[in-house]
Amino acid sequence: MAAQKCNGVGSHWRETSANDSRPHYIVVSALAATILVSLQAQSPAPKPAFAGQTQQPAPATPSPALNVETITTRLSGPWSIAFLPDGNLLVTESTGTMRTIRGDGVVSAPIAGVPPVKVVAAQGLHDLLLDPGFAQNRLLYFTYFAPPRGEAAAIWPNEFFYERVWTKPLAERRTMQVGSERVARARLHPDNTRLEEVEVLIEGAERRIVLAPDGTLLVTGADRFRFYDSDLDGVDHDFTDNPDIRRNFSGRVIRINRDGSIPKDNPWLSRATVLPETYAHGLRDPEGAAINPATGLLWVTDHGPQGGDEINVIRPGRDYGWPDVSYGFQYDARQTDGRKNVRVGNGATSMKGVEEPAYYWFPDIGPSGMMFYTGDLFPGWKGDLFVGSLTATHLVRLVLKGERVVAEEKLLLDLKQRIRDVRQGPDGAVYVLAGNSLLRLTPKK
């Protein structure tokens, strides 16, 4: 078994095994995970800014017993799910493919027409979103990491995005052609076999993509450390002297119209040194995003470094702290001088002008896809927030009161699978991407 560090800039780990047929970049090392938990256990837990910001108790009324139906186990690094009007599911695989899945578990061949994808570290083919008029126009949106000009689609070792990038001086990094984060639009042919009219809408973000209540697209993107004086787990000095660097290159939420144009009310249009698509900044690796139906606001999950995974409520123009403020620490394993518990940025967990997370975890759980449940199949779940956990390998149920978490419940613990995405289906059931499987959750009768 060979351990590899870091699934993206989040603080989770990967493995390969001689008996495992899955691609080596998407499997998690039990040994490495144990080391990571051990390291974090030695770190002093940060003090919350308000009561209930972390470690909330289990709900008074637990979830009902669940029927867990396995639809298929034949996926390869699945990342996102969408529900087609014909009853099929559309799934992205981080390896660069899209497929349809029938209700009886038949998985299609790769859909043709997907643009070339560079798979390296946490980069690959990620989220997808159907246009509100998909039944008529067949339009969909997706996010991915594109290879630089002249480079073919391929799967690269992690070191080509980490060790061979962040160790270089900033001036050299800025000339390196590593690849580009993209949001694209295309039409899915009526027979579901190919994408047509593929068009890149914007570059600079490639994690989750959601439809805002006003019809614009909100897209999350990870910290682009390679473009400024930072690295995988931030810096150990104050980073407030040039806030526009963070507004452009830290993990962001960008906002665009569905044709790729910039909305005329984006928050930074009057500042020429901030990219016009920037909507909010100061995130690290926001791999989950969903609109809260009660308020219309975007909520995102965000990976901390060593500790400090967060849930944030996103408001336009706001700063969420990274890489200057964090509830996490720099990775002990990366300190060449043997230091431990090195704070990120200015060493503070809170700072004036920086939004507090609605909730955080310490140690990490590796939060990924998220959803608000609104269906009737689980009446006790209405209004609750669900988050997939990669590192802790369970499904998180969070009971809310306004923008505060009042209870936390861990579900699907027996699966011991990394949960990448969670979605509510048209039937009110909950669909989960766990490992290489697609699962359907219903109440046990």
Descriptive report:
With 445 residues, the protein is mostly beta strands. It has a single domain, classed as Neuraminidase. Helix content is 6%, strand content 34%. A four-stranded antiparallel sheet has the order 3-27-26-25, with no helix packed on it. A four-stranded antiparallel sheet has the order 8-9-11-12, with no helix packed on it. A hairpin with a 6-residue loop joins strand 17 and strand 18. The chain is globular, with a radius of gyration of 20 Å. The N and C termini lie far apart (41 Å).
- How many helices does DSSP assign? 4
Strand fraction equals 25-35%
| Class by SSE composition | mainly beta
What would you say the CATH architecture is? 6 Propeller
Percentage of residues assigned to helices: under 10%
The count of strands amounts to: 27
- Low-confidence sequence ranges: 1-41
- Reading off the top of the CATH hierarchy, the class is best stated as Mainly Beta
Shape: globular
Strand order of the largest sheet: 3-27-26-25
The first-to-last residue Cα distance is 41 Å
State the CATH superfamily name. TolB, C-terminal domain
How many independent structural domains? 1
The whole-angstrom Rg is: 20 Å
